[in-house]
Every structure is written in C-alpha cells, then in structure tokens.
Amino acid sequence: MERIGAHSHIRGLGLDEQLNPAHIGQGLVGQLEARKAAGLLVKMIQSGKLAGRAVLIAGQPGTGKTALAMAMAQALGPDTPFTKITASEVFSLGMSKTEALTQALRRSIGVKIHEETDIIEGEVVELQIDRPLSSQSSEITHSGKLTLKTTEMETVYDLGVKMIKSLQKEKVTSGDVITIDKATGKITKLGRSFARSRDFDATGSNIRFVQTPDGELQRRKEVVHVVSIHEIDVINSRQQGFLALFSGDTGEIKSEVREQIDIKVAEWREEGKAELVPGVLFIDEVHMLDIECFSFINKAIESDLAPILIMASNRGITNIRGTKYKAPHGLPLDLLDRLLIVTTKPYSEKEVDEILRIRCEEEDIAVTKSARALLTRIGMETSLRYAMYLITSSALVCAKRSGTEVDVEDIKRTYALFSDVKRSTQTLAEFHGEYMFSAIEDTQRTDSQQQADSDPMQAVVPAES
Ligand SMILES: Nc1ncnc2c1ncn2[C@@H]1O[C@H](COP(=O)(O)OP(=O)(O)O)[C@@H](O)[C@H]1O
Ligand SMILES: [Mg+2]
C-alpha cells in the first residue's frame, strides 16, 4: 500500500502550455499567481537560466508553500535532481552546519555521464555447448560455439568457460535476441525473435517478442547514467565507500576529496563525457537557519557548481537567527537582494472546501455534505491542516461505529478529542500556572507587535485569541 503523505494529492502545477493555471489542476486549488510564477521558474530552471539564483516562497502558515515546492518538483520531472530539506535538519545531523549544507547542495547537482561501450547484439541461431568426455571434474563444460545473426550477417563465436556459464545462467536458447557487453561479458536478453514466434506454442504472457536486429553484429552503444555529485563524493571518500549511500551515514567528507571530484568532473565536461544537470535544493522553514548558514549559502550559490535554491518562510519581519537584527522573513539583506519572491495568499472558503474535497478523495474517505460543510468551517476558523487531520481521525471514528460515510457526529467527536492550536492556547492561558515553565507572564510583558513577528505560535493563532 502506498502511504498517503500530506502532499500526495499534488501531481504537478496544473498549468496549460501557456502556463495558465486551471482553477483546480493536478491536485492544486487556487493560488493562481503563485502557481503561474512557479511554472515560469520551472521553465527557467529547465532552460538553465536560473543558475546561481534563489527563490523565496513567502506566505502565512498553511497557504501551500511546501505544496507549491512539491508541485515544482513534479513539474521538473525525474531527470532534474530535487532535494528537500527542512532548515532545522542542518542543526541536527551529526556533522557541522556547513557540511550538512554542502551535502544538500551537492545532492542537488546531477552529473550526466555518457559512456560508450562495445556490444554484440543479435539473434541466437544456435548455441552449441560441448560436454567433455571425461566429466570427472565439476567443470562440466569446456568449450562451445554461439551463432548469432542480424538481418544482414551471421557469425560464429567461440565460447570460453565464463561465457558459457553466463549463457546458461540467463537460460539463453536459440531464438533469443541478446546483447553481450564486450568489456564485461554481461549478457542481456532483449526478448524472443518475432521470426521464431510460431515455433513455440506454449508462450507465456511474460515473453516479449522483438525484431531481429539489423546492421552489424558489433556496434557501439551509448549509455547514460545520472548520479549526483554527492554520490560521487561518497563513493570516492575512502573512509565511507559506496555502502554509506545505503546507510545514509556519510559523515563528513574531506574537502580534498571534493576538490578532486570537482577537477575530475570539469575534465569529463571538457572531454564531452559528462554534462552537469543543475537541480533544485529546497530549504523549507528557512528562517530556522542562522547567520553562519546564510553567509555560507550566499557564497555557495555564486559558485558555478550551484543548484537553484528555493526556500520557504512563514515569517514576517523577524530576528535573523544568531544576530540581534531584524529583517524581512528573517533573512539577511544581502541574501534577500538575490531573491525572486513568490507569495502565497490565504485561501477563500470555497478554496478550503475544494482542497478538503481533494484530500477526502485522496484518502478514499466518503463524507456527507453537511460534514464537509462543517470541515470547511473548521478549516476556515482554525487551520487547513487541522481540518485535514480531522478527516483521517473522523474516518476512524466512523469505521468504529461501522458507518460508511463520515457524518457531522463523527467530526464533532474528533473535534472534542483533539484540540486545535486556538483552543489549546486558551486552555494554556486558563491553566498556565499548573504547567511546567509557565513563561506566559514573561512574554506578555514584551511589546505585542514584536512578539507576533518572532513567536511561531503567534503566527499560527488567529489574531483575536
Ligand atoms: N492550493 C492547494 N491545493 C491543494 N492542496 C493544498 C494547497 N495549498 C495547501 N495544500 C495542502 O494543505 C496542507 C498545508 O499546506 P502546506 O503546503 O504544508 O502549507 P505551508 O507550507 O505554507 O505551511 C498540505 O497538505 C498541502 O498539501
Ligand atoms: Mg510548509
């Protein structure tokens, strides 16, 4: 079963050829200007015109900033590397902040490596394996002959022990169309020849029929791999080895290793063996980074090995972490200077209703009309996210009473079970003396405007509370 994530209903930006957004498209609702801007960014990224630039998605919590970034990743497609981190991850990994950022940046740059290999490709006419007369040893076969053909030629190859083994392992028989990699001896079965399809009456549905290849038996074939620079780093750092790629436990990578890789990649590019594919690094909740990270990023995006940086922040004018200065979105001015800013706006009631409907469909949950109306009201008055959680939990309550459709009663019950932030804050205000570290008196003394900017809770709680 596929897990349903918070953004799994989003399949793209929902734009047409002219980048005009449909009111609802590919799981996204409304937010038309931001979506159009994101579409333009995707085009710029794909044409390589956005290198060394950065984008900030700014807007209140729950206005779809992360959703928009995920939609961009979908629109860019699988060939463009897209790395997503949350700013706080930078502080929690077992490595320095700059190392964590460097790894994230290098994960977001792909290297497309072109390799030419010599292959032999043809249809097996005959495979003849000689069995030695004295079959005492475990080596049963010693020699053999393989006849391969294309539509134009036919050749007999002498087989060594190794080839015979791999032919037997792949269960190659006459009528198969195969490829042999000359350098490694690797055999790949492409399918069975159409010409011979009548010879077999018991053909399973999993047999693929292919044409007999034409032209020469031997040819050069280009294979393309895309790996990220980070993967090349890990494989080449001696302490780590490629196994670290699977464990994810890469530790710090020495700068000498990286320098060498950069030189090597530059060489490959000059020789036309490799191309760079600048991808996207998305840093969510970017105001959680501190001034050291920001100055590092500022420098990093200037390098010619830089991905496109997309950040999201829900802060207004607030402290830059690690300093006593305030700045818009909590970002230093020199970084702000390079940014293209996309803003997301709060949703209308109709849009909230449509997003909730899409989520009900995504989670495969039937909801009555009046229950949906209630959910929408809750979504407007508390938060979109809270309403989304209620869908899932009310469905469980509904299943418990063996209902088939979530109704108003189910939602009321879960609404009573789980507080939203507003009610939770009210409870806190009433009973704060009984909690540990009751700090509410301290914060009340500070200037309320300043508090609204710097306190994350304030941003979430509607103004009247
Ligand atoms: N325009 C939209 N269309 C569909 N779903 C949306 C839209 N905006 C937000 N959502 C969904 O609402 C939830 C909250 O949005 P999110 O992107 O996490 O907000 P933010 O990152 O701005 O705080 C997510 O599950 C998201 O997928
Ligand atoms: Mg978010």
Secondary structure blueprint with pairings:
Blueprint (H helix, E strand, L loop, with lengths): L23 E2 L2 E2 L2 H15 L7 E6 L5 H12 L5 E5 L2 H4 L4 H11 L1 E22 L12 E7 L4 E6 L1 H9 L6 E6 L5 E7 L15 E2 L7 E11 H8 L7 H4 L7 H16 L3 E5 L1 E5 L6 H10 L7 E6 L3 E3 L6 E3 L4 H4 L2 E6 L4 H14 L6 H13 L2 H17 L7 H10 L3 H11 L8 H6 L2 H7 L1 H5 L5
Parallel strand pairs: 3-14, 3-17, 4-13, 9-10, 13-14
Antiparallel strand pairs: 1-2, 5-6, 5-8, 5-11, 5-12, 6-7, 8-9, 15-16
Helix pairs in contact: 1-2, 4-9, 11-12, 11-13, 12-13, 13-14
Bound molecules: adenosine-5'-diphosphate (ADP) and magnesium ion.
Adenosine-5'-diphosphate binds next to strand 2, helix 2, helix 11 and helix 13.
Overview features:
about 475 residues, alpha/beta, OB fold (Dihydrolipoamide Acetyltransferase, E2P), Helicase, Ruva Protein, domain 3, 3 domains, 18 helices, about 40% helix, globular, binds adenosine-5'-diphosphate, binds magnesium ion
